[in-house]
């Protein structure tokens, strides 16, 4: 027996994947539901009654660049860069499963999980320049891995950690 949640139109909006800008002034998040069109939104924090601005009409997981001028985004199975000044969305990957991009503390490298276009292989750690160039796989021990997501850099930018059902991976 499954619970009865009522008709879909009665569901409230759901906000997911919040990310606060480095200066603490902005919030981006993905929204689903009836109040606003689904998509990636930005709103100024502490601004009172400001309405959220739709940045992208799709679900996205975002990570702010350290200078706050761009976002690294997972949209579907690919990684993109959103530039606030130009208002542009640039694809950084185009094949395979590519997820959860995170900026290095100095803004010079993006780390992300990718299966490198091998749908039978679990994701590995990859690095690239913020413009999508110089992609390289980082060999990690203990293959096969079942997943790689929610990575985070050390403050010095010399190590990455990622959770998995087998424990934490630390580079």
Secondary-structure topology with pairs:
Blueprint: E1 14-20, E2 26-32, E3 39-44, E4 53-56, E5 61-64, E6 70-75, E7 78-83, E8 88-91, E9 98-103, E10 110-114, E11 124-128, E12 136-138, E13 152-153, E14 160-164, E15 167-170
Antiparallel strand pairs: 1-2, 2-3, 3-4, 5-6, 6-7, 7-8, 9-10, 10-11, 11-12, 13-14, 14-15
What does this structure look like?
The protein is built from no helices and 15 strands. A four-stranded antiparallel β-sheet has the order 1-2-3-4, with no helix packed on it. A four-stranded antiparallel β-sheet has the order 5-6-7-8, with no helix packed on it. A four-stranded antiparallel β-sheet has the order 9-10-11-12, with no helix packed on it. It has strands at 14-20, 26-32, 39-44, 53-56, 61-64, 70-75, 78-83, 88-91, 98-103, 110-114, 124-128, 136-138, 152-153, 160-164, 167-170. It is mostly beta strands. β11 and β12 form a beta hairpin. The protein is 0% helix and 43% strand. It is globular and about 50 Å long.
